[in-house]
Specification:
heterodimer, A: mainly alpha, Fumarate Reductase Iron-sulfur Protein, Chain B, domain 2, 2 domains, B: alpha/beta, Rossmann fold, 4-stranded parallel beta sheet, 3-stranded parallel beta sheet, 11 helices, 7 strands, globular
Chain lengths: 435, 254
């Protein structure tokens, strides 16, 4: 059958494209510095089960948590339906899973309940974004593309779910009328309710509706599969590994820079003048200027971010009108990784394109951070915007000597009198003397 | 510490005072309060006095890793020379670097936050605050980021304050979701970036919304910010800002 052939061709093309797109993302993530994260595996699996699969960090905001749960569970459950569509498509069968007998209508009805819940959730999400205009969806970094991206995803999901319901409703009517090829496998819980809308149509029209919604659904899914690799929606795949590779220790711990330790030891103890010059060349650059100075986990963070903005809405700097927005930092890392990845791919792995993260992120944003970890704590998929901010600060201070003046004064105080303030060490015991 | 070592004695704890505890006039009172509690408990402790120096925390958070490691490596050497095993800090920022970051540089010590220390002393009955002293007094607690989110210490300050007042008042944003006072990450030492509000005013507003008599803090920087916030709101006559150590010292009546 020609239809089966076209279907198989579409399937192969979509799978091939998707593989290519995933390779692109993986290539971009691997631009990051190598770090090994494979300790404490049992703990990591448990964390992934709780935070990613179990959605535990979503609960702080109950409305979006429940709505998101509908979409998340719906997505997983309705994917079982995809198995049937794929088999039917390749082999020209119709509703192959109906061999399950009386379990079949139960299964389809379950899919339909979730399809309806997904539609409800997506409508609520669209209302929150576009009509209620929740603050966190309208900050500075939410430019037209991120806003459209969100709306495209929500509308697509509504259309995909509606097509299932419409398909089942027309199928159900054809079953009722004893139409050829439409064996009785119903009833279906939700689509039965919309049957009256189609009841006036002749069989031929119903068959057209049933077939076109079937094709619309599967082609939609295949296009969507590839769309998400360009979209924030890629979180549906990366959330799981991203949580697995989370930082496990206390949030307060900053990454050490061993390259500096050797240098400082030499400064403190000039007698050891071992291989000084050789070391200096190996040390490389301090901090991060561009995405490939960050470790790969921070780039995976950026590709996992679905721009929900919980980080920014909990950031003390953002909420008091400062330029800093943790979500913007994470988005900038992704957009820059895309840009640099594309450039390096086209031009061989030679020199960069002369641009850096600092073309997107201003120093003023970085200096507004209080390192309070609210953004890290909030993120439902354990993204660490703070680590990026601190690496960029390191670059500004150690490579560019570009700290704000007051902080330079603090540094000198610390060097000269061992305290961030200009007090003499001789006065350190005054607290004990006065009453 | 130097004096005890000269006498051949080795105290159990190093009481790390910190720069704010030594130089900030308000926080000096907290240092004295905690020292009084240590004396009351008959603890064997010493301070480094003039040998203390900044842990390097603000430098590291402000991107100056070089300066941080200079400070850290020198202090680790000093600690090793006194064979220090246990460190009690009254500053969460010092606590965090000692506990989490010095081990990377070869400094392995048992680091104890004063709130954990006080909580334990009350639990085991060594420390018996006069629970009547604060009955009916409305107290709310501001979580310092470097005790709370950074190190997961939420319970011990709450258990202390609950035992003092019976019922601690929680702010809208508390524990894991607490709002920063605005001073971390080097902000203490610079003007805030341009915005439409100061963070400490926002946070003080949340604290005042619980209608407290006392806002309890557990960090020198938070204390500076919250005290400023109370003044900014012209509420310093009715609302006081005390450190947890001061509240316990007060309840001990000495």
């Amino acid at each position: 059958m020609i239809a089966n052939f076209i279907f198989s061709l579409l399937l192969i093309a979509a799978a091939w494209l998707f593989t290519r797109n995933v390779k692109r993302i993986s290539r971009n993530i691997r631009m990051g510095k190598k770090v090994s994260i494979n300790d404490q595996k049992p703990k990591r699996w448990k964390l992934m089960a709780r935070v990613a699969i179990g959605q535990s960090k979503m609960t702080t905001r109950p409305v979006s948590a429940i709505m998101h749960l509908f979409v998340y569970v719906g997505f997983i459950v309705i994917n079982i339906e995809m198995i049937e569509i794929l088999i039917d498509g390749v082999f020209g069968t119709h509703r192959i899973l109906s061999f399950a007998g009386s379990a079949y209508p139960v299964l389809i009805s379950l899919f339909e309940i979730f399809a309806l819940l997904v539609i409800v959730a997506c409508i609520v999400f669209l209302i929150r974004r576009n009509w209620i205009r929740l603050g966190r969806f309208w900050t500075r970094e939410m430019t037209p593309w991120p806003r459209s991206d969100a709306n495209i995803i929500l509308v697509t999901e509504i259309l995909l779910m509606s097509s299932i319901l419409l398909m089942n409703a027309s199928d159900g009517l054809l079953q009722d009328r004893g139409s050829l090829h439409y064996a009785v496998v119903g009833p279906f819980l939700i689509s039965d309710l919309i049957k009256p809308l189609l009841a006036g149509l002749p069989d031929a029209s119903l068959i057209v509706i049933e077939r076109s919604t079937w094709w619309f659904h599967i082609i939609g899914v295949l296009v969507f599969l590839n769309y998400i690799t360009y979209s924030k929606h890629f979180h549906i795949l990366l959330s799981f590994p991203n949580v697995y590779y989370s930082k496990l220790g206390p949030l307060g711990k900053m990454d050490n820079m061993p390259s500096i330790t050797q240098e400082v030891k030499l400064m403190l103890n000039p007698q050891i003048t071992a291989d000084h010059t050789a070391n200096e060349e190996e040390m490389g650059q301090f901090g991060a200027r561009d995405v490939n100075d960050l470790n790969w986990k921070l780039l995976m963070d950026a590709y996992t971010c679905t721009q929900c903005g919980r980080c920014t809405s909990s950031c003390p700097a953002s909420m008091t009108g400062k330029k800093l927005s943790p979500r913007k930092i994470v988005m900038d890392v992704r957009f820059r990784a895309e840009e640099l990845g594309r450039y390096l791919h086209r031009n061989g792995n030679g020199k960069g394109d002369g641009k850096s993260l600092f073309d997107r992120i201003e120093a003023e944003e970085l200096w507004a951070c209080t390192t309070c970890n609210a953004c890290v704590e909030e993120c439902p998929v354990n993204i660490d915007p703070l680590a990026v901010i601190l690496e960029l600060r390191r670059y500004l201070v150690m490579e560019k000597a570009a700290a704000p003046g007051e902080l330079n004064a603090t540094f000198s105080n610390m060097e000269n009198n061992g305290a961030p303030w200009q007090f003499s060490n001789e006065d350190r015991m005054q607290w004990a003397g006065t009453n | 510490m130097a004096d005890l070592t000269a006498k051949g004695e080795k105290p159990e704890y190093l009481f790390w005072v910190g720069c704010a505890g030594a130089f900030d006039d308000r926080y000096k009172k907290v240092t004295r309060a905690f020292a009084r509690i240590l004396n009351h408990l008959g603890c064997s402790y010493a301070v480094l006095g003039k040998e203390e120096s900044c842990t390097g925390d603000p430098a590291r958070r402000a991107g100056n890793e070089m300066l941080f490691q200079m400070q850290a490596l020198q202090l680790i050497e000093l600690f090793h020379s006194y064979e220090i095993g246990k460190i009690i800090t009254i500053c969460p920022h010092c606590y965090n670097v000692f506990k989490n970051e010095y081990p990377d540089l070869g400094g392995h010590f048992e680091v104890i936050s004063y709130v954990d220390f006080l909580d334990k002393a009350i639990r085991v009955g060594q420390l018996k605050p006069d629970f009547e002293k604060f009955s009916g007094v409305r107290i709310t607690y501001h979580d310092p980021c470097y005790l709370g989110r950074a190190n997961g210490i939420y319970e011990s300050p709450r258990s202390i304050l609950n035992s003092l007042t019976g019922k601690l008042l929680e702010m809208k944003r508390n524990s894991q979701l607490a709002l920063c006072c605005g001073a971390g990450g080097g902000q203490m030492f610079k003007e805030a970036e341009k915005g439409d509000k100061e963070i400490f005013i926002e946070r003080t507003g949340e604290a005042l919304a619980t209608e407290p008599d006392i806002i309890a803090t557990a960090c020198p920087f938070c204390m500076i910010m919250i005290t400023d916030g109370i003044k900014y709101k012209n509420r310093e006559d009715e609302v006081k800002n005390y450190d947890i150590a001061e509240l316990i010292a007060l309840s001990l009546g000495n």
